[in-house]
């Protein structure tokens, strides 16, 4: 069962995404901040990271920059309710593989994960 890290400051988002991931056969591991995720051993074990762009403290783009600067190539799907075209471009240029605009459908998330994970060795 592939582990998918969910990094979002909104408890309700973490809970609903975790339930969806479980029902689709993934192992969700949730974090309320980028700092907690980066300090966790799950950072090295995740098959994919679902990362909110707008969080207090360390924003998602900062987390993504730390991952890429350290050579970590884990696929990152960014999520945001406030994504402008500029933000989307910055996230993709920074190494995100996709950006989902909140609210997204369960099908959109599961399809994105399936497509990304089938490309991983």
From TrEMBL:
<dbReference type="GO" id="GO:0000160">
    <property type="term" value="P:phosphorelay signal transduction system"/>
</dbReference>
<dbReference type="InterPro" id="IPR050595">
    <property type="entry name" value="Bact_response_regulator"/>
</dbReference>
<protein>
    <submittedName>
        <fullName>Chemotaxis protein CheY</fullName>
    </submittedName>
</protein>
<keyword id="KW-0597">Phosphoprotein</keyword>
<dbReference type="InterPro" id="IPR001789">
    <property type="entry name" value="Sig_transdc_resp-reg_receiver"/>
</dbReference>
<dbReference type="Pfam" id="PF00072">
    <property type="entry name" value="Response_reg"/>
</dbReference>
<feature type="modified residue" description="4-aspartylphosphate">
    <location>
        <position position="52"/>
    </location>
</feature>
<feature type="domain" description="Response regulatory">
    <location>
        <begin position="3"/>
        <end position="117"/>
    </location>
</feature>
<dbReference type="InterPro" id="IPR011006">
    <property type="entry name" value="CheY-like_superfamily"/>
</dbReference>
């Amino acid at each position: 069962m592939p582990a998918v890290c969910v990094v979002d400051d909104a408890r309700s988002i973490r809970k609903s995404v975790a339930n969806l991931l479980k029902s689709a056969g993934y192992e969700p591991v949730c974090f309320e901040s980028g700092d907690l995720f980066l300090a966790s051993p799950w950072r090295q074990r995740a098959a994919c990271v679902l990362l909110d762009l707008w969080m207090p403290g360390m924003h998602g783009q900062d987390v993504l920059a730390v991952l890429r600067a350290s050579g970590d190539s884990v696929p990152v799907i960014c999520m945001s309710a406030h994504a402008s075209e500029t933000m989307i471009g910055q996230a993709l240029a920074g190494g995100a593989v996709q950006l989902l605009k909140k609210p997204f459908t369960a099908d959109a998330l599961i399809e994105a994960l399936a497509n990304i994970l089938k490309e991983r060795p």
